[in-house]
Amino acid sequence: MQPTDRIWMSGRLVPWADANVHILTHALHYGTGVFDSLRAYATAQGPAIFRHRDHHERLLRSARLYGMDLGFTVDELEDATRQLVAESGLDDCYVRTIAFRGAGPMGVSPRGCPVEVAIAVWEWPAYIPGAEAGIRAKVSSWSRIGHDTLLPAAKATAHYLNSVLARTEAEELGFDEAILLGADGMLAEGSGENLFLVDGGVLLTPPPASGALGGITRDTVLALAAALDVPVEQRPLTRGELYTADEVFLTGTAAEIVPVREIDNRPIGDGAAPGPLTARIAAAYGDAVRGDDPRFAHWLDVVPAGVAAG
Known about the structure:
Shape: globular
Largest sheet: 9 strands, mixed
Mean pLDDT: 96
CATH architecture of the largest domain: Alpha-Beta Barrel
Distance between the termini: 24 Å
C-alpha cells in the first residue's frame, strides 16, 4: 500500500504515519466497529466518488444497528472525503471510512468508550489480481453469520472474522475466493462480495434475508440490469444452482465485477470467463463509474478542482 499524505480522524487531518489509536481501544479487543468503502474514478470532469452519499448513509445505518453515535453528519463526511481525494492527487482511489469504540473503561460493555471516526484514501487497483480472466472459488465449510447471532445488515468489523476464516481456508486450498452458505444451507455471499448467478438469461441473486450484506455495488448491478432489460430474480438459491449456473460473478466496491470460472473444481458454464452477460454488466458498470453513461451521472460526485484539505 502506498501511503497518501494524511488521514482524517474525528474532524482532524493527521499525517498518515501518525494516524494511531491506543492499545486499549475497545474495538481492538471486542470488535466494536463499523466501516464502509468507496471508490473514486477518473472521469472527463476529474476524479468522481461513486455513489458517495449512499456509502456514508450506510455507514450511519451500520452504526445505528450497533448503538453508535458517530457525531458527524453525512454532509460532514462527504466534505472530508472530497478533501482527502483532492489532496491525494489520485484520479482513481479507494476510500475507507471506519467508526469504532475507542479507549475507555475496559470490559465487554462499550459504555464510556468514545466513538472515533476516520477516513483514509489510497490507491488499490485490483482487489483480486487477474480477476478479469475469472477466478476459482470454493464453497466454504464456514457458514455466513446469521440474523440470530449478529446483525448481518451492518458492515461491522467483527463480522469479518467470519470472512477471514472463509477466505483463508479457500486460499490455503489453492482457490482465489470463498462462497459462504447460510445456516439454512442456501447461498449467501462471498467473503467480501455479493453473489450473482446467470441461468437461462435470468440474473439471480440471494436476498438480504439470506444474511448477505445489502451491497451498494449489488444495488448498482440490479439497476444496470434493469437498464439492459435483463430479467432479475432475488430469491433463495441452492448450492446445486451454483454448480449448474451458466455464469457466476461477484460484486463489491473493492472487487468491482469479478467473473467466476470455476467452483469446487467444477467449471461454470463452458468454463470461459467472463460469460456474455457478465461481460455486459461489467462494461455497463465501467461506463457508469467513469461517467460514460449519462443515465447514471447522478451516481457521481465529481471532486471540484481546487478543493484542498485544510
